[in-house]
Amino acid sequence: MEPLFAFTPAQEIEQRICRVQSEMAAEGVDALLVTSNTNIYYTTGRVINGYVYIPASGHAVYFVRRPVGIEGDNVVYIHKPEQILGKIEELGLSRPDTLGYELGALDCVTFSRLDKAFDGIRSVNISPLFRRVRSVKSAYEIDKLKLSGVKHERVYRRIPHIYREGMTDIELQIEIERVSRLEGCLGQFRIAGESMELFMSNILVGDNADAPTPYDFAMGGRGLDPSLPVGADGTVIKGGMSVMVDSNGNFTGYMTDMTRVYALTQLNELASRAHQCSIDICRCLEREAKPGVAASHLYETAMAMVKERDLERYFMGYAQKAGFIGHGVGIEINELPVIAPRSRDILALNNVIAIEPKFVIPHVGAVGIENTYVVTDSGLKSLTNAPEGIVSLL
């Protein structure tokens, strides 16, 4: 038998449950049912096939279908969700008047089944609640992110040593991913948002960086097949082209996000100037981004710097532009807060955000950097510290 909290300290999980319950109280939610792998992981420290039932007060109940062999207080094995309400009553818990569901993650068929199993109980959407709670990281979570950042940096420092003459973008990507897996990368790339998919890395060489993609990513790429239309497309790496590497940083279940640019030869003046602008934006926002600052202010500050240097045409894409320059990271990519012009998010202490002011220069490719930061009282502290200048592959 294995304890439920074999991988995460029970005290850490208790603190997370308490934060969820505080938000529930503010919204008048009697109980909620966690169904997504992401939030099951957040509320248990592991992924199970089952449900986490969180009442407005008291301990959570863990309804498990698989795997067998988990034990602990309030662990209840079930075969189907229709058993949950009866088990709740057997445990002496009150029948809720309202029950929260992750309607941002549940498919219609599953929701209909659950709603029928809890017949007569009003359903509410608690997906935004979880996004708010998870946006502020605990010390335990930040330690996991720091470790991912260290390992992520090690991989990027090795990239010039794994390049071989005549390589295509996909061949370089495969070698980067091999090094990354050997460093301990889990390979999984969880992304919040509708219908957004990506493999372990996004490697963009030359004009492929400007190929529009259906996904809401900062950079695109046509990909190798219409079934995954993003990223490397088989372009041969040549002089004068930028090689932008945005590779998976999931080494601990918590992901850092980092982008760096490589090249065989010196890039043209426009590309070099744009890349330096990206670095300068990051330095500026590192000072500006403190608790209480509006996320939209950070976007406006970056855009003002871009316009001042006459680089707006190339900013965040050329043929197709992204409407943001940063986002929260953690268990998923694209957590809160969102750094965008119409964002209503306000930075909080211990938010973890990726800032990625990028440019696409025709006939050169993508330039610019991305770092993952922790929001502190004195500004942003970087967790991804690989060299930021354009790195030679030779």
Can you give a write-up of this model?
It is a single chain. This protein has helices at about 10-25, 35-45, 85-90, 110-115, 125-135, 140-160, 170-185, 270-290, 295-310, and strands at about 1-5, 30-35, 50-55, 60-65, 70, 75, 100, 120-125, 200-205, 240-245, 260-265, 325-330, 335-340, 350-355, 360, 365-370, 370-375, 380, 390. The protein is of the alpha/beta class.
Q: List the secondary-structure elements in sequence, H or E.
A: EHEHEEEEHEHEHHHEEEHHEEEEEEEE
Approximate shape: elongated
Distance between the termini: 53 Å
Determine the structural class based on helices, strands and strand pairing. Answer: alpha/beta
- Considering DSSP H and I runs of 4 or more, what fraction of the residues is helical? 25-40%
**Number of contiguous helices:** 9
C-alpha-based Rg, rounded:
22 Å
Count of beta strands: 19
Q: Quick one: biggest sheet?
A: 6 strands, mixed
